[in-house]
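Lecture notes, continued. The same structure-token format from the folding unit now serves as the input rather than the output. Read the line below as a description of shape only.
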């Protein structure tokens, strides 16, 4: 049995750090930005093309997307959103086929919906996330709140567009956690404990 843990997260919740802690405790590979690099290398494009994939999807509304059509170029400087998503999906599936992994974001829970995985969503209260961003990024409270809402909107738009689901909706995941309750390490421990009881983590 492979251990595949997909972690979605609201911005500022520390979901990425939780994922790193889970991977470290289990001694298995962790994929976030590394996933982007792998996708770029395996598709023959520069890694920079894959940066901000979630951000690019949010630039256009669905209505303008269908009204204007999808533009794509045949050089190595641009990839259409759908081609980009397909490349990332192929890499995620290759990672899952290869062995154990903790995968952050990128709609991995949807992409791997046909194989046994533990799907988790990490969030936190707005005030908690704003405070973390203020401390971690050196932002004012107003700046942190603005950034948090912007990033959440980007992630929600990207996820909902490609999965036709609802980002952060508890019904999409096996487990939803508020990282402020147990902290990063405690949240990671809880995910592992839950996964083992569910028979999805070795």
């Amino acid at each position: 049995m492979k251990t595949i843990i997909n972690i979605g997260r609201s911005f500022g919740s520390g979901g990425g750090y939780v994922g790193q802690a889970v991977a470290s405790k289990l001694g298995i590979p962790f994929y976030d930005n590394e996933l982007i690099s792998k996708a770029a290398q395996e598709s023959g494009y520069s890694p920079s093309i894959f940066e901000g994939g979630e951000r690019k999807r949010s630039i256009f509304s669905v209505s303008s997307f269908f009204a204007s059509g999808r533009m794509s170029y045949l050089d190595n400087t641009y990839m259409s959103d759908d081609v980009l998503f397909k490349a990332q999906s192929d890499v995620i599936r290759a990672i899952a086929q290869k062995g154990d992994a903790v995968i952050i974001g990128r709609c991995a829970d949807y992409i791997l919906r046909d194989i046994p995985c533990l799907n988790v969503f990490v969030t936190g209260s707005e005030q908690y996330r704003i405070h973390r961003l203020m401390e971690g990024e050196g932002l004012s409270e107003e700046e942190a709140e603005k950034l948090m809402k912007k990033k959440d909107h980007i992630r929600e738009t990207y996820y909902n567009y490609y999965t036709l689901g609802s980002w952060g909706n508890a019904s999409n995941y096996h487990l939803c956690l508020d990282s402020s309750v147990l902290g990063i390490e405690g949240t990671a421990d809880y995910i592992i404990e839950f996964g083992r009881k569910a028979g999805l983590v070795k």
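Point for the exam: The radius of gyration is 17 Å.
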